[in-house]
Amino acid sequence: MHGRLLALVALFIVASSGCDPVKAVTDAAPPGVDAAIDGGGTATAELTVVLGGTATGTVTSMPAGITCGASCTGSFPVGTLVTLTAAPAAGASFTGWGGGCSGALPTCSLVVNAASAVNAGFDIQRHTVTVMPAGNGTGRVTSPAGGIDCPGTCTITVDHGTSLVLAATASPGSTFLGWSGACTGGGTCAITVNDDVQVSAAFGQSQSLVVTRSGAGGGTVTSAPAGITCGTDCAEVYAPGTMVTLTATPAADSTFVGWSGACSGAATTCVVTIDAATAVDARFDLRQFTLTVTRAGTGTGTVNNLSGSTGINCGADCTENYNAGMMVGLLATPAADNVFSGWSGDCTGAFGPCQLTMSQARSARATFDLAPTVTLTLSVYGSGTLRSSPSPVMGPSVCTSTDPNTTLCTLTFNRGAAVSLTPAPAGGYALIDISGCTLAGGTCTLTMNASTTVSAYFCGTGPCPI
């Protein structure tokens, strides 16, 4: 009662002076908001992340506090700008935010002013399997457990990691010449689907030459004598013993990798003699360009590919090759007590992810600097106070708790500041333990080169939780 009367008098004096009174956040704090006891600490609010969907992933926060999986709720000082980053597990994709965030980008930022929740969705990746019959013969491709029955159903969609077996059966008068694309050879085709997949099954008539094209790139194959122009005409019947020269020409964004089947090697031409139904495959892959990431500045941090599972992970892997035309997203994450100062090179801007189109070799530089301020967290149990000297840049200089509570106070200091903490137990209580700094002569001193926590335990006659 005596304390409340003093508080009312103080408010009356401030109001009479023409200044706005400072509102102490105490017992009247809304649900999910922790208040400092007797106005001695900094109010905090809880941010909760709820994972949903058919797959798994992780969500982490900057500043640190949430690593979901492991911890899906974090407490932050009221008014803190929190950035959440979603990373899908292997074989999963991030589908978007809900609740306090929205959109499908892997990062979102929100100001924590009260207890709030954010939903993050992850679903199993789905991939397309396409069977492409080729040649001037006919036949059937089936997958007893997977839904393919081609001609007819030549495309299906399956979950990431699905195992699929394809079997090819030639029609009367035709010969199965073999697989190309995701499978090779002339037996059954067994694949594990971890990406979109294309498979060609070549069927030929007697004395025919069938050309297939595989790979992620594009190009054409022509023949001399004329007949094959593949693209459009990929099968031709020749007189027995005809020697046919095939020439592979890659598209502008592609490279010719090599021949398989009745031809081999990486030369752009090959010669084949037609004595029976014959199959040749030409593989074209997309050209690749190198992305190089460098890090600069006085601080540290990491740069990661937004897909999470493959690509740039710098730290360790700062150079990767990507297919021509591929969109690559980069996310810069500063280490604790560091800040991301911005992109340069082919990436620009000071905030958020960088998106690059790999139409040529690219380079990106991420600058990380030491944060000018660091955080001192005071944890006070029981009845007593911790007083800091000098006063912090932000936060209370006195952190007070009343038994049986634990009060957390967040103090911000300039990096390198020498800070002294003086513990003072309330009447009938004693300082039982202090951790995070060494007590000498009634105070403990620490140099704030990094964020740290100091815990003090003021205990009376009852049990003490240490």
Can you offer a commentary on this structure?
The protein is built from one helix and 42 strands. With 466 residues, the chain is mainly β. Strands 1, 2, 5, 7 and 9 form a five-stranded mixed beta sheet that branches. It is elongated and about 110 Å long. Residues 1-31 and 35-40 have low confidence and may be disordered.
Q: Termini distance? A: 31 Å
Give the helix level as a range of percent: under 10%
Shape: elongated
Largest sheet: 5 strands, mixed
Structural class: mainly beta
Mean pLDDT, to the nearest integer, reads 86
SSE layout and pairing:
Layout: H1 2-16, E1 33-34, E2 44-52, E3 57-62, E4 67-68, E5 73-77, E6 80-88, E7 92-99, E8 107-112, E9 116-124, E10 126-134, E11 139-142, E12 149-150, E13 155-159, E14 162-170, E15 175-181, E16 189-193, E17 197-204, E18 208-214, E19 219-224, E20 229-230, E21 235-237, E22 242-250, E23 254-261, E24 269-274, E25 278-286, E26 288-296, E27 301-305, E28 313-314, E29 319-323, E30 327-334, E31 338-345, E32 354-357, E33 362-370, E34 373-382, E35 384-389, E36 398-401, E37 406-414, E38 418-425, E39 430-435, E40 439-440, E41 443-447, E42 452-459
Parallel strand pairs: 2-9, 10-17, 18-25, 26-33, 34-42
Antiparallel strand pairs: 1-2, 2-5, 3-4, 3-6, 6-8, 7-9, 10-13, 11-12, 11-14, 14-16, 15-17, 18-21, 19-20, 19-22, 22-24, 23-25, 26-29, 27-28, 27-30, 30-32, 31-33, 34-37, 35-36, 35-38, 38-41, 39-42, 40-41
